[in-house]
Amino acid sequence: MTKAAHHSEALEAQWSSALHSLGRRVTRQRLAVLAAVERSPHATADDAAAAVRAELPHITVQSVYVVLADLTDAGLLRRIETPHSPARYETRVNDNHHHAVCTGCGRIEDVDCAVGHAPCLTPSWAPGSKRMTIRIAEVMYQGLCDDCRATPAHPIDQISDPFQKEQHER
Fold it and tell me: How many CB atoms lie within 10 A of CB 104?
């Protein structure tokens, strides 16, 4: 057995156990959606549906959407909302990591917790507000990846002098 096949079987066993512990049935559809998102982190629902349909050709796109929503509600998937993009999904859950999105190409990268412990940020409460116990902080970094910065499509980002940059933006 190859290392990849062993890893895949171990993940399937882990997901099956998690589904059972959550009172959900283990189905081929659920396992296929989890595997598709695992193989393609930050996948859109349509990306996941295409991957699942390669394995289960008779599954409907609507069924994949329903499974994605169910697995997200169960905490086995995380839904990521990025600007100007459809929702994306990942299997990396329960660690309160963040995301960096390239505003040029749209690539998404995981960024570990900024402080090292959840929720990563301590809120500064406005006077008169009712405080909460914060469990999760979602931070989204936006900028240009190194590949996009190297292209002439973004000349303003090639300028290192802040004064020149300000003049160019006017």
Answer: 16
b vs e for 36-74, b when ≥16 Cβ sit within 10 Å of the residue's Cβ? bbbebbbbbbebbbebbbeebeebeeebbeebbebbeeb
In whole angstroms, give the CA distance from residue 137 to residue 122. Answer: 9
Mean pLDDT by 10 residues, the chain (170 residues): 80 95 96 96 96 96 97 96 92 89 92 74 86 84 92 57 46
> Cα(79)–Cα(86) distance, rounded to whole angstroms?
10
Write down the pTM of the prediction.
Answer: 0.78
Determine contact, residues 117/100, Cβ cutoff 8 Å.
no
Q: How far is CA 74 from the centre of its chain?
A: 16
Of 54, 60, 99, 59, nearest in space to 78 by CA: 99
- The C-alpha atoms of residue 128 and residue 34 are separated, in whole angstroms, by 43
